[in-house]
Specification:
By secondary structure, the protein is mainly beta. Helices cover about 0% and strands about 60% of the residues. It has no helices and eleven strands. It has strands at about 5, 10-15, 20-25, 35-40, 45-50, 55-60, 65-70, 75-80, 90-105, 105-115, 115-120. Strand 5 (about 45-50) and strand 6 form a beta hairpin. It starts with a strand and ends with a strand. The mean pLDDT is about 95.
Length: about 120
């Protein structure tokens, strides 16, 4: 059974940093395409970053240069390093695995989701 567990969220001031972790069980992080999504209050869930089995990464424009997605294969963990945080980054962040729906070269839905970790950025 696949389980994804996020951690590392919290409250920070604008300009601060957080590192989100997504520990996986029943699933090999290194071998698969995975993603980070976020959902702000009143908004739809949106893709933030993805990483494939070769380590190729993609980001939405608003986080490029500030966020970095990576994998630790030994720890079987997915990370999202978030620097220079802005109030508009405030959201619940989810990691996801096993793409089920593709839009071009982006996966827009996944079979497995974590429970989410809250990130709040104050100005």
């Amino acid at each position: 059974q696949v389980q994804l567990v996020e951690s590392g969220g919290g409250s920070v001031q604008a300009g601060g940093s957080l590192r989100l972790s997504c520990g996986a069980s029943g699933y090999t992080v290194s071998s698969h395409y995975m993603g980070w999504f976020r959902q702000a209050p009143g908004k739809e869930r949106a893709r933030v970053a993805t990483i494939d089995s070769l380590g190729n990464t993609r980001y939405i424009d608003s986080v490029k240069g500030r966020f970095t997605v990576s994998k630790d294969n030994a720890q079987n963990t997915l990370y999202l390093q978030m620097n220079s945080l802005k109030p508009e980054d405030t959201a619940m962040y989810y990691c996801a695995a096993e793409p089920t729906v593709w839009l071009g070269s982006y996966a827009t839905n996944f079979r497995y989701w974590g429970q989410g970790t809250q990130v709040t950025v104050s100005s």
